[in-house]
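Hi R.,

Here's the chain you asked about this morning:
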Amino acid sequence: MGEFFSAIQSSSASNITTSPFSIIMNLGMALVLGLVYSYIYSITYGVGKLSRQLQHEMRSMQYTILLLTVGGALIWIVVADNLVRAFGLAGALSLIRFRTVLREPMNTIKVFYAIILGMACGLGQFLVALIGTLFICLILGLIHILRKKEKNAKKKKHHKKIYSEHEFKI
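And the predicted structure, written out as tokens:
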């Protein structure tokens, strides 16, 4: 049985380095690929006009896909080649999934990231935690800006419609 666990640990991700450049490259590549995947998801989500509810679900899922892609990279940087860390993370995530009711996928992802960052800090991987936090905050900031622009565009469109319907005659 001991040979089994030795074989698992020797064949895992031991080539992952935690230099600042390597962390940024890994997370950056995950970000780029997550953006591509999220965009393709939006194209293939549905055909024709979508209801407001479906549009909201699609946007939420796009952001979730993006964050999960970067989160997956961060997990493997933190877990690296340690089987115990992997099982610890799986146990922590099962608590989120089965013990907590989070209606919005984005909230689940935010809790997920908090666990990953806490795990990185607990393992003394402060550089990984710091760079990971910066990436997560950057992505969340961009998502916030995009949502705000979308909301403002809808308001302007709505106001134009109201003013055009009620033209004043002098």
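The chain has one domain: 18-146.

Let me know if you need anything else.
M.
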